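Anyone up for a design puzzle?
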């Protein structure tokens, strides 16, 4: 497993991961909604206001998280950590030992 910063060039893989993960756990409608959100966030990755990090196994993206900057009146740097997805087949910790 490899952890890395993810760029805009992985927008479709991000959307697919979020769509399938949330679709499996929350239903098709929610999967489409969160997949669309991930697609929009993926297109907005600029490494300043929107960042993404992920885990890959071989060529497959198996987990990802977005960091989205929140802005306040003062100069505080705060990021929201969401959404987060882990490939459904890997959500059971016992699969990591196999």
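Challenge accepted. My sequence:
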């Amino acid at each position: 497993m490899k952890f890395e910063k993810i760029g805009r060039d992985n927008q479709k893989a991000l959307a697919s991961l979020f769509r399938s993960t949330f679709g499996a756990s929350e239903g098709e409608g929610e999967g489409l909604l969160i997949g669309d959100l991930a697609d929009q966030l993926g297109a907005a990755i600029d490494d300043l206001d929107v960042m993404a990090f992920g885990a890959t196994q071989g060529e497959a993206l198996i987990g990802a998280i977005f960091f989205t900057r929140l802005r306040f009146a003062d100069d505080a740097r705060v990021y929201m950590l969401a959404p987060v997805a882990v490939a459904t087949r890997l959500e059971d910790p016992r699969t990591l030992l196999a």
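A detail worth pointing out: The longest helix spans residues 11-26.
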